[in-house]
Amino acid sequence: MKQSNAPVPLKPKDYKSAIKPIWCPGCGDFAVLNAITKALAWLQLPLENVALISGIGCSSRIAAYTSVYGFHGVHGRALPLAAGLKAAREDLTVLVAGGDGDGLSIGGNHFIHACRRNMNMTYIIMDNEVYGMTKGQASPTTAPDWAGSKLTPGGTMIRSFKPAALALASGASFIAKAFTGDPNELARILVAAIEHKGFSFVHALSPCPTFRPEQMDWKHHVHAFEAETTSDPVLAIQRLQADDGMGMGIVYQKDLPVFQPGGTSPGTEVAFFENEFAL
After folding, report:
1. Which of 91, 124, 179, 221 has the smallest set of CB atoms within 10 Å of its CB?
2. Is the pLDDT score of 3 beyond 80?
């Protein structure tokens, strides 16, 4: 029998590392990991051509659970790390992952500028509306009347961020919302986000069964956006502001100029900079 030289298709498990996740049982982040590996397998991206950058928090552990290149950065700094990597290696598929605290609090400034810069990368925020790794404090997406933290027993009394609306106002060219209770739909959205040329933002609702057990009820409230994806930011913001927070799907997608610095042009080689500092 003649043997085939065709490459064996990569499967989702091929994108997972041997390190076992230590998330709490029932955490939505498990579904995000599965959705990412499914999306990469669907696109058949070579392992060495993908990099996953993360910050700090429960969700940011995800970089260690994959077999692609990864970097576990410091709190709130995943996006500038990813931008630097993309600037140097335009050929890489760059994914960025983090939580609502990591991405919208200490990393909030980096988030809005990453959106407006529109580099070709995909950012996934796993939102459980709480700081899970540091035992349950309120985050930027926590409802003002949530009294589940000892630090804010009467609630924060501060209005919460709307991450998708913030991304739209800041200039992101692809914006989607997804629910970890539907990992296949999340994987489909991630495929579209990765294929999009520009900064793709995926806001993934990821329940925390430990500090926000009431979020397990989200599965009864999520629903698809009634309208199709739009390239009109005015329509997109109207839909997001009118939404009850449980609308899911690709809200906005538009072809906008992609920012990419000079990369590895002769003027940016390491040797060029070394010569500048030669004694």
Report:
1. 91
2. no
Domains observed in the chain? 21-276 (3.40.50.970)
Helix (H, G, I), strand (E, B) or coil at 21: coil
Give the DSSP H or E segment for 276: helix 270-276
Q: How far is CA 37 from CA 7, 12, 33, 85, 123, in A?
A: 19, 5, 6, 21, 15
Residue 10 phi/psi, 5-degree rounding, is -75, 145
Rounded to the nearest angstrom, the gap between the alpha carbon of residue 89 and the centroid of all alpha carbons in its chain is 19
Prediction pTM value: 0.91
**Number of residues that make up the chain:** 279
Q: Would you state the torsion angle of the CA atoms of residues 159, 165, 166, 170, taken in this order, to the nearest 10 degrees? A: -150
Q: How many CA atoms lie within 13 A of 88 on its CB side?
A: 8
Do strands 50-54 and 199-205 pair parallel, antiparallel, or not at all (unpaired)? Answer: unpaired
The pLDDT assigned to 266 comes to 46
Q: With contact defined as beta carbons under 8 Å apart, do 77 and 109 qualify?
A: no
Which has the closest alpha carbon to 95: 160, 49, 134? 49
Reduce the DSSP state of residue 13 to 3 states and report it.
helix
The per-residue pLDDT for 2 is 59
pLDDT digits (tens, 9 = 90+) for 225-247: 988 999 999 999 999 999 999 99
Pairs from 67-71 (Cβ < 8 Å, separation ≥ 24):
67/14, 67/15, 67/16, 67/17, 68/15, 68/40
pLDDT at 8 over 90: no
Question: Cα 106 vs. chain centroid, distance in angstroms?
Answer: 16
Using left for φ > 0, alpha for ψ between -120 and 50, and beta otherwise, residue 139 falls in beta
